[in-house]
Amino acid sequence: MGDTLLYLEDLQPGQHFVTATYTVTEAEIFSFAREFDPQPFHLDDAAARHTIFGGLVGSGWHTAALTMRLLVQSGPPVAGGILGVGGEITWSAPMRPGDTLHVESEVIEITPSRSRPERGIARLRNDTRNQRGETVQTFVARIIVLRRPASRA
Amino acid sequence: MGDTLLYLEDLQPGQHFVTATYTVTEAEIFSFAREFDPQPFHLDDAAARHTIFGGLVGSGWHTAALTMRLLVQSGPPVAGGILGVGGEITWSAPMRPGDTLHVESEVIEITPSRSRPERGIARLRNDTRNQRGETVQTFVARIIVLRRPASRA
Fold first, then answer.
1. Are the C-beta atoms of residues A143 and A121 closer than 8 Å to each other?
2. ipTM of the predicted structure?
3. pTM of whole model > 0.80?
């Protein structure tokens, strides 16, 4: 991946990026859930055993937030930052305490803007995987990407 | 809405729910960004003025997390909790410091599970709006909803 900033012209379908890893703790799962998703299966291991998860799991939004941090810190070095306008998110397996996550990204599609010549939209598929290779989250994102400024072309 | 728990049989397309409100502070926007989305437009008002946002904005994932808290605390009282399996998220306007958010939800579709007779999937459109009525986020969620247990039917 290197440190060179990526502009719209540098992205093409099929490109792959892999982030660093991050291990989430039970304390972090509790902390996020208390603040943003206070439900028993995210807050209390004993209570979570009686739910469909069979034990404590992280909030899907916690998975999403950790995915974003991995992308910002060690994902594709998109010029101007990672500016999402939306996407399709799927939580296919729970994130559990002690899971070590990483994100694998693939460029799906590039669409130059017709109204804003200085930018375009990239579709990126971001699979967040745990230490067993299981996909815990897929986020097919639409992000704004700047074109390379003419003076630096 | 009341306090009565909602089972799959209680939901039908067109039902509406409205949450309480929540006002997000600049300190909360900084705190979330430092932990999960450390980019200049979420971390530094002066730096954010030179980005496409023209000033500090909250992370889209912060909007999503605050939306979840509003739904859990004052949204539709779904039996068994709000268990998302995924959905389509769109950030149509930035969340800025001092914004007062609420969530308006509408049931879109109910699909009983064929393999798991005790549950089904509801599609819920959740519009997160600010104090000016602008939609900052739309999340069309797919959530697991339990059928009413036979003993309580």
1. yes
2. 0.95
3. yes
